[in-house]
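Milestone M4 deliverable, item 7.
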Amino acid sequence: MNMAEWLDRTSRHRGDAPALFLGPTLVADYRGFRDRASALARALTDRGIRPGDRVAIFMKNCPDYLIVLYGIWYAGAVAVPINAKLHGKEAAWIIGDSGAGLAFVTPDAWQGLVDATPIRVIDTTTDEFADMIRGDGDGDAPVSRGPDGLAWLFYTSGTTGRPKGVQITHGMLATMSLCYQVDVDPVAPADAAFYAAPMSHGAGLYAPIHVRMGARHVCPVSAGFDAAEVLDAAAAQGPLSMFMAPTMVRRLTDEARRKGSRGDGIRTIVYGGGPMYRADIEEAVALFGPRFVQIYGQGECPMGISVLSRDEVADRAHPRWRDRLGSVGRAQSAVQVAIGDADGRPVPTGAMGEIMVRGGPVMPGYWQDPQATARTLRDGWLMTGDVGRLDEDGYLTLQDRSKDVIISGGTNIYPREIEDVLLTHPEVHECAIVGRPSAEWGEDVVAFVVRHPGSTVDDHALDELCLAQIARFKRPKQYRYLQELPKNNYGKVLKTELRQMLGTEDT
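Output delivered:
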């Protein structure tokens, strides 16, 4: 089934319902949304785009983003969303790898892209684009696509090399969306999706279920994440639901404290995409209340591996609530989760190993990369590359990426355990743990710490904190203090860059 059919159905059932907003300004109701997407599909067909062809989206968050996305799907083509923060040359590489024949852009991105790629580029602020989306009120039906039909090429963030194109099918999107409704957070027509995180990533993946339920779609005027704007929009246009990376939740909490806000109008914040430290989510729940749901997924199984529900995130009565809050929840309805050893064989309950997933939301493979596909998909299982464990109640604790595990003296040390401890110090704002080569031990533990403004916390205080809570051999051998941690465009800490800092350090 073509995911554009959900827009077609909603427009016929609730055509007058408000759909697309730029800040508080209504841009289109559902009938207008459908007409513009259908008109764009017609224009794409006139320009030679055929079912299965790839069309790139290199745009900041805005209502036209959804019109373009659904117009591509209406035409039976494949969307290639690209993070708008990437350099034009990086975007051009993705366009070349995907074989996209056309790209839609917003003005801030397009010049660098034109210089780097010969394909046709359409600026969505021009008269040409306005003509392409001018509907006549008699929209065509979406081109028929089966559940295995390619819908979205999702390019991984590429923190360790060139990004890979994850093939996301219409069936995967439908399954993931229905799991959102069942497992994550039921959507009602009165709700609104607020796009503070990049629509090329998790935020955009959650658009279909909000389209299916006839909810509103609100794009911030800033076209990105601004904590103050989120709080103001929620108060004026709530109930709002949104996806956030953990670093965004941290910034929202800080801003709410500064403004004396309790987040009125925020219905749900779904967080994921990186480690959420227990101290940060405890503080957020204490301030905002039960508004948070955690999901765990990756591009290869988008947003769909596990979920820690709103009630579980807020629970403080269960005897093991801290352990559960430190987990990423239980398997979503459409997947099976297991823990395997280096050969993919199941390990006993509670044992550490690689997280393996199979089910409807799992990708069929990487775009034109059979070797990487064979390494990642084994005997029907997606090998996530993440290290974790399952407890007897089915809660999955994500320890670290396998490449981030530190082996010191022959013993595995998991950075997240140490990071969780350091973040309990009231003067530590952020931290990241990496390994440094050691002739004696193999690797030493090094902590990179971002202190709160005005803080003077030092090595001695952090050493005492660690020694009070974890084994001595896990204690950092060195602390490095930074103004900020290096992060990619999705807010993930770039531990590769931290290791490079250690590599260039005088010894």
